[in-house]
């Protein structure tokens, strides 16, 4: 066989071997990529959260708490509920005013606050005695601000709303339906909290608040 032909055959063989090796390398790369993908898929399945992260309970059953949007409630128990396939620890809360039961996940307990102290109640009563502060803005804007204060759950802000919307015994002063609604909402929130803190009846708490607001009902003429 001529030398040139032999050389050409050798080159062809080498090229074929190179192509074969390249193909094998590509196949191995694809196989390793598939293995890696499968491993990642398996890992993501293992990492999937099945249970809510444990969090220290701040409150316990029978504790009274204030939930800004609903007012005063009492924790009945702590239970586990399955929400979206995850076990979640919740406070079961009874709201006396609305005669309703509510659930609050323990990892959302920052929404709750404990009842006011005696000192905070006394300071709130002092706020009620103060002179109303009425801004010279449109009622819709003020109503929004009052509503935000009520839903803040902060006792001093509640007291400010009651003080500013209080009309005392002056029946001649015009008060819109929305003003009365906001006043009564804030008043009821304070009343329900104060009676528990002071450990007195609803009537006695109301008398204390009405005295601070100068809303004492006139005595009947005999």
Structure notes:
With 222 residues, the protein is of the alpha+beta class. Among the domains are: 64-114, Thrombin, subunit H (Beta Barrel), CATH 2.40.10; 118-212, Methane Monooxygenase Hydroxylase, Chain G, domain 1. It is built from six helices and five strands; from the N terminus they run H-E-E-E-E-E-H-H-H-H-H. The chain has a five-stranded antiparallel beta sheet. A hairpin with a 4-residue loop joins strand 3 (86-95) and strand 4 (100-105). Helix 2 runs parallel beside helix 4 and helix 4 packs across helix 5. The longest helix is centred in the first third of the chain and has 45 residues, at 3-47. It is elongated. The model is unreliable at 218-222 (pLDDT under 50).
Structural shape: elongated
Estimated share of beta-strand residues: 15-25%
What is the number of strand segments? Answer: 5
Q: Spans of 5+ residues with little confidence (pLDDT < 50)?
A: 218-222
> Structural class from helices and strands?
alpha+beta
Give short descriptive properties of this protein:
disordered C terminus; 6 helices; 222 residues; 16% strand; alpha+beta; Thrombin, subunit H; 5-stranded antiparallel beta sheet; Methane Monooxygenase Hydroxylase, Chain G, domain 1; single chain; 5 strands
């Amino acid at each position: 066989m001529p030398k040139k032909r032999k050389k050409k055959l050798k080159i062809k063989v080498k090229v074929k071997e190179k192509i074969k090796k390249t193909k094998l390398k590509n196949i191995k790369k694809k196989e390793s990529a598939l293995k890696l993908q499968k491993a990642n898929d398996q890992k993501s399945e293992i990492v999937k959260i099945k249970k809510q992260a444990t969090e220290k309970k701040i409150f316990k059953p029978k504790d009274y708490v204030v939930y800004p949007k609903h007012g005063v409630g009492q924790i009945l128990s702590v239970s586990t509920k399955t929400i979206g396939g995850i076990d979640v620890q919740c406070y079961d809360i009874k709201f006396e005013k609305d005669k309703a039961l509510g659930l609050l996940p323990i990892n959302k307990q920052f929404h709750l606050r404990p009842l006011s102290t005696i000192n905070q109640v006394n300071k709130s009563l002092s706020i009620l005695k103060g002179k109303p502060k009425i801004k010279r803005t449109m009622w819709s804007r003020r109503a929004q601000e009052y509503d935000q204060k009520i839903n803040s759950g902060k006792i001093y802000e509640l007291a400010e709303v009651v003080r500013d919307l209080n009309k005392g015994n002056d029946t001649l002063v015009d008060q819109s339906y929305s003003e009365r609604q906001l006043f009564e909402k804030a008043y009821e929130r304070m009343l329900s909290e104060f009676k528990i803190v002071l450990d007195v009846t609803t009537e006695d708490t109301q008398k204390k608040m009405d005295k601070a607001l100068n809303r004492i009902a006139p005595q009947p003429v005999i």
